[in-house]
Amino acid sequence: MTTPTIELKPSASPLSDAEREAILASPGFGRHFTDHMVTIKWTEGRGWHDGQLVPYAPLSLDPATMVLHYAQEIFEGLKAYRQPDGSVASFRPDMNAKRFQASARRLGMPELPVETFIEACDVLVQQDASWVPAHGGEESLYLRPFMIATEVGLGVKPANEYLFLVIASPAGAYFPGGVKPVSIWLSEDRVRAVPGGMGDAKTGGNYAASLLAQAEAAEKGCAQVAYLDAVEHKWVEELGGMNLYFVYGNKIITPALTGSLLAGVTRDSLLSVARDLGYESEEGRVSIDQWQADTENGTLTEVFACGTAAVITPVGTVKRSSAEWQHSGGEPGEVTLKLREALLDIQRGIGEDKHGWMHPL
Ligand code: COI
Q1: Domain carrying residue 31
Q2: Section 87-96 average pLDDT
Q3: What is the CB < 6 Å shell around ligand 1?
Q4: Which end of the chain has fewer beta carbons closer than 10 Å to its terminal beta carbon, N or C?
Q5: Interatomic CA distance for residues 116 and 139, integer angstroms
Q6: Could you tell me if residue 1 is inside a domain?
Q7: Residue whose CA is closest, atom 6 of ligand 1?
Q8: Do 16 and 160 fall into the same domain?
Q9: Residue 77: which residues within 8 A CB-CB, separation 6 or more?
Q10: Which of the four pLDDT bands, split at 50, 70 and 90, describes residue 176?
């Protein structure tokens, strides 16, 4: 595999410093984008080529471009944080790069070398460093690497041309309420992914498949949907855009990777952070009935969602067709908050990075 060198073709920001600062003061999530983007092409027979950092701009695509019809697309999400000394570091970009390769394999797309993925993220953050929010808060620069099939044609087959891009967006809390607990609708009929499908790939199709249930959840007054396995409709898998953790006193349990849920980087990190804090952590199976019964008998003490965008968000109210219950009296639980603080401290450079997760730029 060839590794392209990324050619820098920057231009002056279209925004004034004051305009950028106003956005950074209250960035929201995924609403604003930085001044540049990285693009790298892949062509059959030639491999990766024409890596460039260019001004952020719309793409021009032929209406018959394959991704628009057959959804051959994958993406990633990772964050860069301002450190106490003013420098910037990203969190575990190697994990995202490897998962991007796994997603590419699943969708019949070419694998971008890990070092090229990291270089692409690095050059964008370095160029647009003024967009990384200040140290101290929870804000960060969210990076969105993605790849689309760009061959033009309507035959259903893996494309022979692709475009890889990285864009960046200053990010505050994913949920408007921040650390306020989110409400969950437990979907007992609609599934997100099936065994042998692509539930463990980070591809837009999985998110599209979740939108109807998400709209139904909103009608029931819930912010997110928890999906069950597609065979027995019994085992809790994930929330569609984030993983789940169940807190049993001193032990945290997350659904094991069965192939139909995403291997979240935050999920993986928390298995270690929890142990560092003296908790037990494990991957396991939790059924929907167990979720309800263990809440009622008091052994299941807290539940939280986790992901790059969501960080760690407590789960409050849970609704299923036959019942409704609440965790931690609708307040963030103690273990949830401790884990959240410990992880954010590592990311913000004020906690010891004993696993070597931070990637300085
Ligand atoms: C992330 O946490 O980075 C995600 O991709 C979840 C969502 C914003 C799609």
Answers
A1: 7-171
A2: 98
A3: 77, 241, 307-309
A4: N
A5: 26
A6: no
A7: 241
A8: yes
A9: 96, 142, 143, 144, 307, 308, 309
A10: confident
